[in-house]
Design a protein that fits this description.
about 170 residues, mainly alpha, Serine Threonine Protein Phosphatase 5, Tetratricopeptide repeat, single chain, TPR-like_helical_dom_sf
Length: about 170
């Protein structure tokens, strides 16, 4: 079974279970994206955004990612702007946006999203969070000098490097 077959099966499940539509939308959208049907993924993610679907993945960030994939950068940036205006309390949507922009090589924008995410952590969490490590890594990439927050998580960054090295060997 290829990705398109899997997406069609998931779409059938979506249609057969209208009461579970909100819970299934993101999974079906991801399947269509994997199958290369950006148009259908965008339709489903737009619906998820309009329904304000709550999930571990932020529908707006996923929608922005698919829009970037489809070469619709202005629309993708508009989704990220709308996310910023919605001011979620959780750090997770900001973290997802930061990772998206980091993957795209847009490090200054990634830093803005990391700063927004870290601001939603309590002070004790900031010094223990790999989210803060992501911020540190982006700041290094931008050539910025370490600030107090960077210094507080350098030990986590070293630990992460060590784990990655062990996994690669």
């Amino acid at each position: 079974m290829d990705a398109a077959d899997e997406a069609r099966l998931l779409e059938e499940e979506l249609e057969e279970n209208p009461n579970d539509r909100e819970a299934l939308l993101l999974g079906v959208a991801k399947a269509w994206r994997e199958a290369g049907d950006h148009g259908r993924a965008i339709e489903l993610l737009t619906e998820a955004v309009e329904l304000d679907v709550e999930d571990g993945d932020c529908p707006r960030v996923l929608l922005a990612e698919v829009l970037f994939d489809a070469g619709r950068d202005d629309e993708a940036r508009a989704q990220l702007h709308a996310l910023r205006l919605s001011r979620p309390d959780s750090p997770e949507p900001y973290h997802q946006a930061a990772d998206l922009m980091r993957k795209r090589g847009e490090f200054a924008e990634a830093l803005t999203w990391f700063d927004l995410a870290v601001a939603r952590l309590d002070p004790d969490e900031r010094a223990r969070s790999y989210l803060t490590v992501g911020r540190l890594q982006v700041r290094r990439r931008l050539g910025l000098p370490p600030d107090d927050l960077d210094t507080s998580v350098e030990h986590l960054d070293r630990h992460l490097d060590e784990v990655v090295r062990k996994l690669r060997s």
